[in-house]
Specification:
The chain has helices at about 25-35, 55-65, 80-85, 85-105, 140-155, 175-185, 200-215, 230-245, 275-280, 290-300; strands at about 5, 15-20, 40-45, 70, 110-115, 160-165, 165, 190, 195, 200, 220, 230, 255. By secondary structure, the protein is α/β, with parallel strands linked by helices. The protein has one domain (about 5-170, about 200-225, about 270-290): NAD(P)-binding Rossmann-like Domain (Rossmann fold), CATH 3.40.50.720. It has a seven-stranded mixed sheet with strand order 1-3-2-4-5-6-11, sandwiched between helices. A two-stranded parallel sheet has the order 7-10. It starts with a strand and ends in a 5-residue tail after the last helix. It binds NADP nicotinamide-adenine-dinucleotide phosphate (NAP). NADP nicotinamide-adenine-dinucleotide phosphate binds near residues 76, 164, 165 and 171. NADP nicotinamide-adenine-dinucleotide phosphate (NAP) binds next to helix 1, helix 4 and strand 5.
Length: about 300
């Protein structure tokens, strides 16, 4: 059974509310530990709520009658999606549609999370929320189809927050992988020609709560401030991890082009997103540079 808990975070909501979170990954974990005081939170992992099962979603939402649904569930294995397109579409498109139908029937506000991978990466300036989409792979295409399901099924009372390069002290991600590899390998070669904005799931979660409080509407972008290549990010991870004694000694980190590290899914070369609309709609949302966010995250125990 999903554990029901009452939020311990700052009291930013003007009334008590019941919130259903689908998924139990990085974002869901951060939503759990940052939930505002007057939130009754129900976080459901895949075993407790498989969002691809329309009837299960309808039943749970009908029983629970949440004020808000936050969809933190997704098929996030970008390369795996190329080999298992059906699974990615089931979660990232059909699953979202199921949540929307239940939100519509039971009159809930829906906050859905999407990705920079809806963009093609050929831009030279940060993508606005209404910029043309051009997903390069199955993951991005399925997430874009999920976005379309939201606006197709729900007339209003929804928001989509696109984010990028997410990490947290919980779960698997680039930061934890880098630290492990830096302990094991004599040197690392990291892609230097893909540019984005690393984002601590904690920043994203705090922004989600602001979105819930303000009933944010429409599509917006949330990342930490600043831009980096994966190489820049890896160098910063090593530097901060050495400072914090998470690593004993430095190893060489070498910049390489995308072509030197072929993957099943093509990634956008440039996926920096313009956050202006979100900052205008949610002036209290956190504004933290990715390096400051990384430093804070590295102070936490990994779990
Ligand atoms: N991670 C990133 O770098 C990144 C970048 C851009 C956007 N995003 C978006 O940000 C959101 C949160 O990502 P995250 O990093 O927190 O992802 P995550 O850590 O991979 O968590 C995703 C969660 O969804 C669950 N899930 C998968 N299929 C499900 C299903 N059929 N029913 C219910 N739950 C299911 C997973 O369960 P299992 O563990 O059992 O599979 C997991 O708990 C997602 O929408 C993602 O697309 C992430």
């Amino acid at each position: 059974m999903a554990r029901v808990r009452i939020g311990q975070g700052p009291n930013i909501l003007n009334k008590a509310m019941k919130v259903l979170v689908a998924g139990k990954g990085q974002l869901a974990w951060e939503l759990g530990r940052t939930a505002p005081q007057n939130v009754e939170l129900h976080i459901h992992d895949r075993d407790e709520l498989d969002i691809t099962d329309a009837e299960a979603v309808r039943q749970l939402v009908g029983q629970l009658r949440p004020d808000v649904i936050i969809n933190a569930a997704a098929y996030t294995n970008v390369d795996g999606a190329e080999a298992d397109k059906a699974a990615a579409w089931a979660v990232n498109c059909t699953g979202v549609e199921n949540l929307c139908l239940a939100a519509k029937e039971f009159d809930c506000y829906l906050l859905h999370i999407s990705t920079d991978f809806v963009f093609g990466g050929r831009a030279a300036v940060p993508y606005l929320p209404d910029a043309a989409t051009a997903p390069l792979g199955v993951y991005g295409a399925s997430k874009f189809a999920g976005e379309q399901a939201v606006s197709r099924v729900l007339a209003g009372n929804w928001a989509i927050i696109r984010t990028a390069w997410v990490y947290s002290s919980f779960g698997n991600n680039f930061v934890k992988t880098m630290i492990r590899l830096m302990q094991q390998k004599p040197q690392l070669s990291i892609i230097s020609d893909q540019i984005g904005s690393p984002t601590w799931a904690n920043t994203l979660a705090l922004t989600c709560w602001q979105a819930v409080a303000e009933r944010l509407q429409g599509i917006h972008h949330c990342t930490n401030e600043g831009v980096a290549s994966w190489y820049d990010f890896a160098v910063a991870i090593q530097e901060l991890a050495l400072q914090k004694k998470l690593l004993e000694k430095p190893i060489p980190v070498l910049p390489i082009p995308t072509e030197a590290y072929p993957t099943p899914a093509e990634r956008p070369r440039y996926s920096v997103m313009n956050k202006q609309s979100l900052l205008e709609a949610l002036p209290s949302a956190p504004k933290l540079h990715w390096r400051a966010a990384l430093s804070e995250m590295l102070d936490e125990p990994f779990c």
